[in-house]
Design a protein that fits this description.
Elements: H1 2-9, H2 13-21, H3 25-32, H4 38-50, E1 54-59, H5 67-86, E2 93-97, H6 109-126, E3 131-133, H7 141-154, E4 159-163, H8 169-176, E5 182-186, H9 201-217, E6 221-225, H10 229-241, E7 250-254, H11 259-267, E8 272-278, H12 283-292, H13 294-307
Parallel strand pairs: 1-2, 1-8, 2-3, 3-4, 4-5, 5-6, 6-7, 7-8
């Protein structure tokens, strides 16, 4: 399987330099990351919302090594909130945050990440939107869930992400499927050991369905993070069986992947949110997009051969 190899490459400085230096790379990266600054991303936000879509915005960058870099990440999100306020799009665009970017892996990182993320969550609430805490590798999750629980005391709309390939996730889903919760379910895109995660696609898919059923039958707000047509169809059926209305759950897909499907679901009346990333530190995000789906890797390799 190429996925684990690509995920390992996402942590390689040598591979980072090689891929970043390739002339064609930026043209391909733009498919998934359409801008480096908040000003560059504004037309994308306006275009997607005009088409009836909603967004979750991610300022990419995870390799934080100093508290100053973590503070800079916080400030980048605060600038994003200011622009969403100016555009009067607070109700159409939320934000996704990786706590590693806010200093979670540094000394005293749990407290530092909480201190950095709180003002962003507060600013988001002030303009009518919210924040979802992205899931990262399994060693970070206890900290992420604790921060999520703490933030929800004052900002109950704060969301979090759970990953179907982890053995622990069914238990996490049962705990989280409570009234007022917002939970995004994804398959998972980090290289995890067999001791903690399913390794085979069919096992992950079956776990995804089991967990999604838990969320749909619970009292929270499920967010279906998948591009898989079969899982999307199953999600619709589980929602129907649970008696959910169209505004009581949503679909989420990545910018640049299955864009026609985004529009189709929105046209059918579903809430369809596009995960839209921007920023200069794009490498880790880009490599995980390649690892998630063979078609993405083929797209990149074909572009390297034909344009490089």
């Amino acid at each position: 399987m190429l996925g684990p190899v690509i995920l390992a490459a996402s942590r390689s400085d040598q591979m980072r330099r090689l891929i970043s230096a390739a002339p064609v790379t930026k043209q391909v990266v733009d498919r998934f990351i359409p801008g480096e600054t908040v000003d560059e991303i504004v037309p994308i936000v306006q275009d997607l919302t005009a088409k009836g879509l909603e967004l979750t915005m991610d300022v990419v960058g995870e390799d934080i090594t100093t508290p100053e870099q973590a503070a800079a990440a916080r400030d980048a999100y605060l600038r994003l909130v200011d622009r969403l306020k100016e555009l009067e799009l607070g109700t159409r665009a939320e934000m996704s945050i990786k706590l590693s970017m806010f200093g979670q892996a540094l000394d005293g990182g749990h407290e530092l990440a909480l201190a950095n993320v709180r003002p962003v969550v507060e600013a988001a609430a002030a303009i009518g939107t919210t924040v979802t805490l992205d899931a990262e590798d399994h060693t970070t999750l206890d900290s992420m869930f604790a921060i999520h629980e703490e933030l929800r005391k004052d900002f109950p709309q704060t969301g979090c992400v759970i990953q179907a390939y982890l053995f622990r996730t069914e238990s996490d889903a049962r705990r989280l499927a409570e009234a007022g919760s917002r939970v995004r379910l994804v398959k998972g895109a980090y290289k995890e050991p067999a001791e903690v995660a399913y390794q085979q696609k069919h096992e992950i898919d079956k776990a995804y369905v089991r967990i999604l059923r838990i969320l749909m039958e619970g009292e929270g707000y499920p967010m279906i993070g998948s591009h898989d047509p079969r899982l999307i169809s199953i999600g619709q059926e589980l929602a129907r069986r649970a008696g959910r209305k169209l505004d009581e759950y949503e679909f989420q897909m990545l910018y640049g992947i299955r864009s026609d499907e985004h529009l189709r679901l929105a046209a059918e009346g579903h809430r369809m949110r596009v995960y839209t990333a921007y920023g200069t530190d794009w490498y880790g995000y880009f490599m995980r997009r390649l690892a998630e789906k063979p078609a993405n890797l083929r797209f990149f390799a074909r572009s390297m051969l034909t344009r490089g």
